[in-house]
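On to our target:
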Amino acid sequence: MRSYPHDGHPVALGRNAKAGAEASAIQALGTAMHRPHPPLTRALVVLALALFFPGLAAGQLRTIPEAAKRATIEHVTDMIVSVDGRQMRLAPGAAIRNERNLIIVPVALPRAGAEAHYLVDADGQISRVWLLSAEEAARPAKRDASR
């Protein structure tokens, strides 16, 4: 009996080799036909969860440290920002988070400035910034004597 592997050349198979090849083919076919969770089913489940529970991701509260100071921040140039009118340098690797808690680059800061909380590192450079949403900005700022 002859069999044609993937390269198309006939190969002579013995009795046991033929039975093994047929068993492998049947097993592979059965595995492909009976998947426990087809990709389409998984995609539909994820879509249904996203539609029925949209507030799960959006409703997460972000944690801003108590030590963070509040100010109006705007981008000046490169890694320089204006904090309540005073120019300060952003630390290497500084993280600026927007109102949706996504990390943004310094040039994406609003041109007119934005209310924000920020942390300063040991070198006096700004290491982390959180731009405030309208709801967060409406809350009264806590008094900070160290400014």
Observations:
- The chain has a mean pLDDT of 79.
- The chain is about 30% helix and 30% strand.
